[in-house]
C-alpha cells in the first residue's frame, strides 16, 4: 500500500513538470523578434540575439516547393 501511495505521489509530482508557456530568453519569443534588444548591435553585447538563440534567422523568408511525380 505504501508503494502504491508513493507511486501515485511520484506521478502527481512529475505531472507538474513541463511546458509552462514561457520562453527561457526574451528574444526567443516571436513577439520580441523585432525589438531593438533582440537585434544587432544591441544583442551582441550579451550574445542574446534571436538568430543566435534559435540557430536560424526567423526574419529570413525561405520558400520551398515540392514536386510530385504522377
Short description:
By secondary structure, this protein is an all-alpha fold. It has helices at 2-15, 50-54.
Q: Can you put this structure into words, describing what you see?
A:
The protein is mainly α and 70 residues long. The chain is 27% helix and 0% strand. The longest helix has 14 residues, at 2-15.
What's the helix count?
2
Distance linking N and C termini: 62 Å
* Rg on CA atoms, Å: 21 Å
Strand proportion: under 5%
Q: Per the principal axes of the C-alpha atoms, what is the gross shape?
A: flat
Class computed from helices, strands and strand pairing: mainly alpha
What characterizes the major β-sheet?
none
- Along the chain, the helix and strand elements come as HH
Q: Overall mean pLDDT score?
A: 82
Q: Can you give the helix content as a percent range?
A: 25-40%
Total DSSP E strands: 0
Give the uncertain stretches in residue-range form.
none
Amino acid at each position: 500500500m505504501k508503494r502504491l501511495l508513493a507511486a501515485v505521489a511520484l506521478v502527481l509530482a512529475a505531472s507538474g513538470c513541463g511546458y509552462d508557456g514561457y520562453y527561457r530568453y526574451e528574444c526567443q519569443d516571436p513577439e520580441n523578434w523585432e525589438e531593438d534588444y533582440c537585434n544587432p548591435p544591441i544583442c551582441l553585447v550579451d550574445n542574446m540575439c534571436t538568430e543566435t538563440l534559435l540557430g536560424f534567422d526567423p526574419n529570413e523568408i525561405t520558400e520551398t516547393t515540392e514536386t510530385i511525380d504522377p
